[in-house]
Design goal:
There is one protein chain. The chain is of the alpha/beta class and 390 residues long. It folds into 2 domains: 160 residues, VC0802-like; 209 residues, Rossmann fold (3-Layer(aba) Sandwich), CATH 3.40.50.620. Helix content is 40%, strand content 19%. The strands form 2 sheets. Strands 1, 2, 3, 4, 5, 6, 7, 8 and 9 form a 9-stranded mixed β-sheet that branches. A hairpin with a 2-residue loop joins β2 and β3. α5 packs across α10 and α7 packs antiparallel against α8. The protein is elongated and about 85 Å long. Adenosine-5'-triphosphate (ATP) binds next to α5, β11 and α12.
Amino acid sequence: MYTSLLVRYGEISLKGNNRPYFEDKLMDNIRRALAGLTPRKMRKTFGRIFIDLHDDLQAVTARLQRVFGIVSMSPVVAVPLELEAIKKAALAVLKDSPGTTFKVQAQRPNKRFPLTSPEINREVGAYLLTHSQGQQVDVHHPDRIIHVEIRDEGAYVYSRTIPGPGGLPVGVTGRGLLLISGGIDSPVAGYMGMKRGLELTGLHFHSFPFTSERSKEKVIDLCRVLATYCGPFRLVVAPFTSIQKAIRQHCPEEFYVTIMRRMMFRIAGAVAGKENALALLTGESLGQVASQTLQSMAVINRVVDLPVLRPLVAWDKSEIIEVARRIGTYDISIRPYEDCCTLFVPKHPATKPPLARVEAAEKNLATEALLAECLEKLETIVVEAESAGI
Ligand code: ATP
Ligand code: MG
């Protein structure tokens, strides 16, 4: 019965001169999300988007719930500018949403329509009362509002509002490089970054054979979930074994983690340059583990010029887990495969690593050669969304 989906996008209409760019991105992202379904028309009008439906409301809304920038959606019945047609549509819409009370709320930007908004409300309301059972009008707290919009091209009738994911369209705020492990936190950090409009490339450090092929598969599976929000996801896999071996051989145990993370950040800085990424993103949260104290972060951060975004910095683990479950990464993250970090965690990692001592310890490494070797062997994988059905 619904002929189209009305899509609202609040925040982006606030962004002044950028508005057409934001809207075009959102339209592109919607088109990409709907690829594979029946081709359909879409049009942008008065700060909203109308998308034709072909009896596939469920499939379309399920996909659009993963398109950032969409605030809400309403399935609408479009009818010609005739009162009889409007009344019938209103009755169908009333029957499709649960409740026992309603009110009709008309808007009439098209002033050529012969009835005023209060007249439409009265006429349509009376029709609904006589053609439905057990329904009452409640103008103050109705179970549902039957909206009637009278526009130049026709009338739209709708009631239900389905929430969208909010945020900004992926791509409008630039590209970031997400350091993604197989853990719970980094995929959530990526999700939050995408929600603020970042397009991401992933970077994963892999320590074969200390970490298995299956731990790499796990990261690819996480990227598959992220790809449902942004389309095909570029994942760069960096071989990290030689670097970890060198650290183990030449550096004091208490600084393993700090030095390992400084090496990760150096590589990330170089990969970001290649990928045109303007920031790094990590799943770090303040105080969660030894390398995530402010002192550690400061010492680790020194090796890169790029801003390091930590979307989860102030989140509790329980809050992170809640989002991980909601977005569908949690069950993958808890698969028991090893990560390169967990393998090299010493018994007593320094929580306040002094910069001078870390730098002195690093002198024992052939840093430049190790970095060059890693950067030469990068592997890039383009990961598609987890299933075409989403
Ligand atoms: P996560 O759940 O994301 O693994 P964590 O609590 O295990 O986080 P750490 O292992 O200290 O935290 O890692 C902190 C951050 O460093 C991660 O969120 C991620 O951004 C990055 N990181 C850790 N290991 C890797 C890896 N193997 N490849 C890429 N990035 C990594
Ligand atoms: Mg981890």
